[in-house]
Specification:
The protein has 482 residues and is of the alpha/beta class. Helix content is 37%, strand content 14%. The protein contains 15 helices and 17 strands.
């Protein structure tokens, strides 16, 4: 049985964070994948993302944008923003919702640069490596390093077989002691861990050259544990360049497990500071950040969206009440079946269901949702806020989008998930009204048939810190001056 507190004690006992091999802290560089796999395999949850091997057609270089692939000393900047391909369409431009608003806020005072991974390097398949016409004004792509590193890995396995065997043995030893403790066999992911360590080992010098040319005073990271981001944070921390993680997703009492660690350990894979959405969206006890390094700054993008005037979406009904189901990758199968059950039991003359897919599950086909009273929302370029602005009630297990919906004062039904992936109930139980809890489709029907109340502003303000524009600027200035 996996328990994150036991895992933290286990890591301390075996001094895994300081385990070095070939000049790198090997366990640190693969820890996030191991921790996530331990948790998901123990709970029999859906795998978090679809891993695929890119082919030659994915290595498309945009010839009209050659300057976006080459780094020079002219790229020297005060602030380095690190993001990936995940963007949403805003007017005629594609925005990275966690970094572009921040860049726009500070670009008049500081010189900024954004670096972005191609989609195929982010464990997800997309039509294009990048969405061109990005909102980021000064942006460079990491495609050439990604391609170069893939060939380096292939060559290393062929020409350095002895070293490769030693890496395999080292990682196997880590997995063996984990198995002895938790009785969870991670050997099915062994090659994935090996390849990700090799990526860090073989790309480090190339990324160090980029950091040398940019020479930032501070780095802001939209952090997801893709290999490039892992090694970039590692290098920045080695060089004592201040790093800031902009919160992505709510940090619950027991999820996401990769955000939990011994906060007194020197984790080079962890940024120095966390710019958090609000006090109710981080559970501090096992969080890898020290309390004084968690700064409640709010959400710049959401704050803008709360003030936006939207047209009524054509997918929604103006004659029925709209029920918005909000999915997540790891509970998609479970939630889609539940939505289908609710659809069978509701009065279809009074209610319509909209089912919003998570961006990483849009290629999935849940046949149970193929019903005339269920609208499936799969367009990743279409923001969820335009639906939340008009929806009558939202339903989900856990997702940042649910908390964003609460900012719109939407009555919210939280499903107590059988896998207990995230303790949302613990986070939201203090709401005086507007939040309901259910365990089955019958519970949902009973709630829908009552007079639903909206959440109160005083509770919403604990989820989302107010005045984010002021707080982002103020805290950034303090960090740079340190």
């Amino acid at each position: 049985m996996f328990n994150i507190e036991e895992m933290i004690d286990f890591e301390n006992k075996h001094k895994l964070a300081q385990k070095e091999f070939l000049g790198l802290k090997i366990y640190q560089l693969i820890r996030e994948y191991i921790i996530n796999d331990l948790s998901s395999m123990d709970k029999s949850a859906d795998f978090v993302c679809d891993i695929f091997t890119p082919c030659k057609k994915d290595f498309k270089i945009y010839k009209n944008f050659k300057n976006r692939y080459i780094f020079t000393k002219k790229d020297k900047s005060d602030i380095l923003f690190i993001t990936d391909h995940r963007r949403i369409l805003q007017g005629d431009k594609y925005e990275s919702v966690y970094t572009d608003e921040f860049e726009n806020l500070v670009k008049d005072k500081y010189k900024t640069i954004t670096i972005e991974q191609p989609s195929w390097a982010c464990f997800s398949k997309s039509k294009d490596a990048h969405t061109l016409n990005e909102m980021s004004e000064n942006i460079k792509y990491l495609d050439l390093i990604e391609i170069k590193t893939l060939y380096k890995i292939k060559n290393f396995k062929f020409f350095h077989k002895l070293k490769y065997k030693k890496i395999v043995l080292e990682i196997k030893q880590i997995l063996n002691i984990i198995f002895e403790k938790f009785n969870i066999d991670l050997s099915c992911h062994l090659q994935f861990y090996i390849d990700n360590f090799l990526y860090c080992l073989l790309s480090k010098k190339d990324y160090e050259k980029i950091i040398d040319k940019i020479d930032p005073r501070c780095a802001v990271i939209y952090y997801r544990a893709f290999p490039a981001k892992v090694i970039l944070v590692y290098i920045l921390r080695e060089r004592k360049i201040k790093t800031i993680e902009v919160q992505h997703g709510t940090f619950f009492k027991d999820y996401p497990v990769n955000q939990m660690a011994n906060k007194n350990e020197n984790w080079l894979i962890k940024p120095d500071f966390l710019f958090s959405f609000g006090e109710k969206q981080v559970y501090l006890k096992n969080l890898r950040y020290k309390k004084e390094n968690v700064l409640f700054t709010g959400n710049l993008f959401l704050n803008k969206k709360l003030k936006t005037n939207y047209s009524f979406p054509i997918e929604m009904s103006n004659k029925k009440k709209n029920i918005l189901f909000i999915s997540q990758t790891v509970i998609g199968n479970y939630l889609s079946k539940l939505a289908s059950e609710v659809n069978e039991k509701i009065d279809k003359n009074s209610f319509q269901i909209l089912y919003r897919f998570h961006p990483q599950e849009i290629n999935k086909n849940y046949e149970c949702l193929n019903k005339c009273n269920i609208k499936q929302l799969k367009n990743v370029n279409e923001e969820i806020y335009k639906f939340q602005k008009f929806t009558d009630v939202q339903i989900g297990v856990f997702s940042t989008a649910i908390f964003e919906g609460l900012a719109f004062a939407i009555p919210t039904i939280i499903i107590i998930n059988e896998n207990n992936i995230a303790d949302v109930e613990y986070t939201l139980k203090s709401f005086k009204q507007g939040v309901y809890f259910a365990q089955s489709s019958d519970d949902i029907i009973k709630i829908l048939n009552t007079s639903l109340q909206k959440p109160l502003k005083e509770d919403i303000d604990k989820l989302w810190a107010k005045n984010p524009e002021i707080k982002f600027k103020r805290e950034l200035d303090k960090i740079i001056k340190q």
